[in-house]
């Protein structure tokens, strides 16, 4: 590849990880083209973009960004040099959906795993991203919260209506006995 092409790719990667506040670098090995395209399609539906990157070009992008941002300095210090094939997932909107979607793929395929990532300007390693991906999503948390709030109200309503139901039952039994 020509030097100018590499510079353009580095600039593209730099812009991608600088503009998107949330991204993850993931590892893939021995995955079929069909599986990769399926994963790319599902990630796109979840608001994430998958882009295969060369490790050296990603390292150059992070080195450029580390001059002005401490999160990238931490990436450089803890994760370089990168090994194995890498892909960059940049998240737009709700990052948890794309993170969960990739995690689902990685559970089914041992050749996929997280390497590192920056979520809300905080650096995460492999273990951190895996833990984040296992957390419940925003919709699920909202449903649980509504259930917790609704549960005492439902119990109170049942407790208040229960004596009336018993009274009606006793009166109906009494009326049957008299007939």
UniProtKB/TrEMBL annotation:
Gene Ontology cellular-component annotations: ribonucleoprotein complex; ribosome
MF (Gene Ontology): large ribosomal subunit rRNA binding
InterPro entries for this protein: Ribosomal_uL10, Ribosomal_uL10-like_sf, Ribosomal_uL10_bac, Ribosomal_uL10_bac_type
Superkingdom assignment: Bacteria
Keyword line: Ribonucleoprotein, Ribosomal protein, RNA-binding, rRNA-binding
One of the GO biological process terms: translation
PANTHER family registered for this protein in UniProt: 39S RIBOSOMAL PROTEIN L10, MITOCHONDRIAL
Recorded family membership: Belongs to the universal ribosomal protein uL10 family.
Subunit-level organization: Part of the ribosomal stalk of the 50S ribosomal subunit. The N-terminus interacts with L11 and the large rRNA to form the base of the stalk. The C-terminus forms an elongated spine to which L12 dimers bind in a sequential fashion forming a multimeric L10(L12)X complex.
Functional description taken from the UniProt entry: Forms part of the ribosomal stalk, playing a central role in the interaction of the ribosome with GTP-bound translation factors.
Protein's name according to its UniProt entry: Large ribosomal subunit protein uL10
């Amino acid at each position: 590849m020509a030097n100018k092409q590499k510079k353009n790719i580095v600039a593209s990667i730099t812009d991608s990880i600088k503009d998107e506040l949330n991204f993850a670098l993931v590892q893939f090995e021995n995955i079929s083209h069909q599986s990769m395209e399926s994963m790319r399609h599902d990630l796109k539906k979840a608001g994430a973009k998958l882009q295969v990157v060369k490790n050296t070009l990603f390292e150059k992008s992070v080195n450029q960004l580390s001059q002005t941002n401490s999160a990238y300095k931490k990436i450089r210090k803890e994760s370089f040099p990168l090994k194995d094939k890498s892909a960059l997932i940049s998240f737009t909107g709700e990052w948890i959906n794309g993170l969960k979607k990739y995690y689902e793929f990685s559970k089914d395929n041992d050749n996929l795993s997280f390497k590192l990532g920056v979520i809300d300007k905080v650096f995460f390693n492999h273990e951190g991203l895996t833990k984040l991906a296992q957390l419940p999503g925003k919709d699920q948390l909202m449903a649980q919260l509504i259930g917790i709030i609704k549960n005492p109200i439902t119990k109170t309503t049942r407790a208040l209506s229960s004596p009336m139901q018993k009274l009606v039952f006793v009166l109906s039994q009494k009326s049957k006995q008299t007939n």
